[in-house]
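A favour, since you know our structure tokens better than I do. Would you make up a two-line entry for one protein for me to read? Write everything out right here, beneath this request.
=====
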Amino acid sequence: MSFNSFNLDPRLLKNVQAMDFEVPTPIQSATIPPALEGRDILGSAETGTGKTAAFLLPLLQKLIGTPRTREPRALVVVPTRELALQVAEQAEQLSRNTSLRVATVYGGVGYGPQEQALRKGVDVV
């Protein structure tokens, strides 16, 4: 199986290749197809196995194919600031060369820049 078999937007595929993802990991192979069909998924895998891309790729694919609004269209909730930053970084890498915007919101820092990003309009928070 390859990432091409998922019929992702060519920009997403290009970004996957730029991130040196060669073939889908087992968690990605098991979860991306049903997620692309709009089905709920629940997956569990060890750290470093590609879980973030497993849920972000279908999410970004869905957002690319639907009209933009000013309000956030997707919310990703994670338990720590560090994980929020990691997920946002991967979302930004995977959504390069698309019109999708990503913002990270978390505590312990000034809200000014976060609020400004939300006011400009984002797709994924």
About this structure: The radius of gyration is 15 Å. The longest helix spans residues 51-64. The chain has a mean pLDDT of 94.
